[in-house]
Amino acid sequence: MTPVVLIAEELAPAAIDVLAHDFDVRHVDGTDRATLLAALADADAIIVRSATQVDAEVVAAAPRLKVIARAGVGLDNVDVPAATARGVMVVNAPTSNIVSAAEQAIALLLAVARHTASASASLKNGEWKRKQYTGVEVQGKTVGVVGLGRIGVLFAQRMAAFGTRLIAFDPYIQPARAAQLGVRLVGLDELLRESDFISVHLPRTPETMGLIGEKELATVKPGVRIVNAARGGLVDERALAEALAEGRVAGAGIDVFVAEPTTDSPLFGFDNVVVTPHLGASTAEAQDKAGLSVARSVKLALQGEFVPDA
Ligand code: MLT
């Protein structure tokens, strides 16, 4: 019987081509739980992005499952222990979209600094308003990077070209590496106190959830602008909305939400907040890289071959 590969979210066509010759490739909407569980009955592999929750129930619903592939960086929507307990391999594409994610954070930061989204909406609405949309330059400003992993480093390197002063909080990076990047390592308290812009670049774990919440937002430099293109919930949405309402935070660029997909957030009511529906990895280049990488891993796994690290 031809092995079944279930694709639960949008995947680059080139990736599907890699699989179509050898496998029975089927598509399902991973956010439609009942359909997903039914489709798993004879699946040998499942490929997801960030919207499909691959939890213990999903693993249990797929008695033939051999591999779970996440076409992206994080694995926070995959219950890896549940998969491992069943002997199901989990693969991802850890570097596929790091440039796209860093560029998205920068796009949001600049859009927040210059009111790009609201000015665009206003002009398209028939208004020619210039005074209301006076922004700020980023040159000379202090940019606080929370998390200097692969994406945080790419973000910092690019922000350096804007003539910013870079500080970062990351308990795991070697000070010499930070110095090499021209970044001064500080504690989270100092970063919150000093930054004109803060951008978060951390995975979603029990430790990082709500890292920037009510208490932290009470200590920020007044007028700070905050960007989260990493994971929903790292910056608490309700606490951020309160800080925006009080004027302590001057703006925010948010690509990710605590529950996704969503069309409802306390942040949507603010003119000075730019929001996007988790588009950090949504570029042609990143999707090709992520899709091809996991498609190759799935093919090797289902053919019983060694799967090298992506
Ligand atoms: C990732 O973790 O790489 C992205 O969030 C994937 C996605 O865009 O779904």
From TrEMBL:
Pathway: Amino-acid biosynthesis; L-serine biosynthesis; L-serine from 3-phospho-D-glycerate: step 1/3
Record keywords, A-Z: Amino-acid biosynthesis, NAD, Oxidoreductase, Serine biosynthesis
Catalysed transformations (reactions): (R)-2-hydroxyglutarate + NAD(+) = 2-oxoglutarate + NADH + H(+); (2R)-3-phosphoglycerate + NAD(+) = 3-phosphooxypyruvate + NADH + H(+)
Enzyme Commission no: 1.1.1.95
Any one of the GO BP annotations: L-serine biosynthetic process
Entry keyword annotation includes Oxidoreductase: yes
GO molecular function: NAD binding; phosphoglycerate dehydrogenase activity
Source organism superkingdom: Bacteria
Functional summary from the UniProt entry: Catalyzes the reversible oxidation of 3-phospho-D-glycerate to 3-phosphonooxypyruvate, the first step of the phosphorylated L-serine biosynthesis pathway. Also catalyzes the reversible oxidation of 2-hydroxyglutarate to 2-oxoglutarate.
Family of this protein: Belongs to the D-isomer specific 2-hydroxyacid dehydrogenase family.
Record protein name field: D-3-phosphoglycerate dehydrogenase
Organism: Actinoplanes digitatis
